Amino acid sequence: MQRILVTGGAGFIGSNFVHHMLARYSYDIVVYDALTYAGRLENLAAAEGNPKYAFLKGDICDIDAVRSAVKTHKIDTIINFAAETHVDRSIMQPDAVIKANINGTWALLEVARELGLPRFHQISTDEVYGQIPEPLRSSEGDPFEPRSPYSASKAGAEHIVYAYHTTYGMYTTISRGSNNIGPFHYPEKAVPLFTTNALDNIPIPIYGDGMQMRDYQYVTDHCEGIDVVLHKGVAGEAYNVGTSVETRNIDMAHKILDLLGKPHSLIEYVKDRAGHDRRYALNTDKLRALGWTSRHTFDQALEKTVQWYIDNPSWWRPIKNGEYRDYYYKQYAERQSK
Ligand code: NAD
Ligand code: TYD
Q1: Is it the case that residue 119 has pLDDT exceeding 80?
Q2: Alpha helices (H) along the chain
Q3: Percent of the chain with pLDDT over 70
Q4: 33 C-beta closer than 6 A to ligand 1
Q5: What does pTM read for this prediction?
Q6: CATH number for the domain harbouring residue 48
Q7: Which residues line ligand 2 (CB under 6 A)?
Q8: Is 34 contained in some domain?
């Protein structure tokens, strides 16, 4: 592993991962990203000028462009972060997630097979397991029961990755991360949406009863987990990455308001998400056995995240003034008439 193609590297987790890898190793990192609404070159500004880093604009569904990128840069490893990632958008427009997450993953795998790449890593999610009743936790061998277009597309992508391992003998690995929080998180997702709304004294929309639970992990902990899987993961295997501590959405919202010194009256209960998964929860023993550990508690992760949004309005304000406004109106106007 010397020259790595990081697809989706201009997004939230991908950009954090690029910074992590450039700081820790001397690999050549080539980011390949279509720069959709969620992909932002400013997330990679700190890497500009580093001779070990290059950026290519391209769609993972465009197999010719992927092949050309892999050949030109003599890539030996693909790490696939590229995806349409928002559950609510996947409910409004399922075609986009199916194309990017399933067709796109296939195109990457096909190029990797054709050119004999020694390594392929797929970034997946705890959402492939579906909702998990308390007190159960999902382990890697558990069946998939995805319930949203997003999670179904990620599960589909995983099946294709596994098929390329068993059928063609490719050295593939998969990591299934829980919800990430931290810098460069597009403010359509709950934590940055709640934080930036509260900073502007705009109501925080809580879906349904707000009792749904997520395992929120700090993004750099997830990046370290992916790093461990890349270096120690066994071919054909998948690894859960998360804190194994779950928090209710309503509790998370109260904590954000307290951190910002804002009134709890900003909380507004709105119509629930269709098919809303009640709880995700991971057993992470398999990754911990490889030496990984989660460094941040939920409170530490949330505090750092909220502080980043306080310190970086120049990053999120232009986003909230652009395409986002139309999306927000479509997504929330109808919900608020609950
Ligand atoms: P993001 O939405 O912030 O970024 C996605 C990136 O992919 C963007 O830069 C976008 O431009 C790019 N992209 C989208 N479609 C593309 C295409 N067809 N071709 C090339 N690039 C394309 O997403 P994120 O939160 O950073 O998630 C990254 C990966 O991690 C995804 O695979 C996601 O499913 C997975 N994941 C996310 C979370 C989370 O909490 N955010 C948790 C677990 C797993
Ligand atoms: P999100 O950040 O979209 O991640 P995911 O659905 O992939 O877990 O949402 C996290 C939780 O917050 C989820 O239970 C849905 C809920 N949520 C709200 O209550 N209000 C919102 O405006 C959003 C975006 C999410």
Answers
A1: yes
A2: 12-24, 63-72, 87-92, 94-97, 104-114, 149-168, 190-199, 219-232, 249-260, 285-288, 298-311, 313-321, 323-332
A3: 99
A4: yes
A5: 0.98
A6: 3.40.50.720
A7: 87, 179, 189-190, 193, 205-207, 212, 214, 249, 273
A8: yes
